[in-house]
Amino acid sequence: MARVSPTTADPVAEAAALLRRVAFATLILVVPTAALVTRRGVVVLIPIGISLLVIASALDGAQRPLATTARRLAASPATIAGGIALFWCALSLVWTPFPAEASERFLNIAVTIGMAVLGYLALP
Fold it and tell me: What is the pTM (predicted TM-score) of this model?
């Protein structure tokens, strides 16, 4: 006769693990396939994958310490160079002859960078 295991699994940890697996499968398998088929698929699937990663790390707290990771990320040369480039993009909005289109592109760039940072901070 089969016996039930005496150890009880943590449903929150299992749900977070499932969400993390779905997120990685989306980002690693589905996004490149969608990139071959359509352009808009990537724009939709990457935020979904990153959102699933953020939700999974909020559920189980398996991510790296946020304060030290964010401090190390902010002090890296790539982040400083990206910040300077983002500042230049924002400054160029002052003299552009097409402020609506330029503002929309700047907002897209800023949101993309924000999503990348959230995804990086949510990694275990």
Answer: 0.79
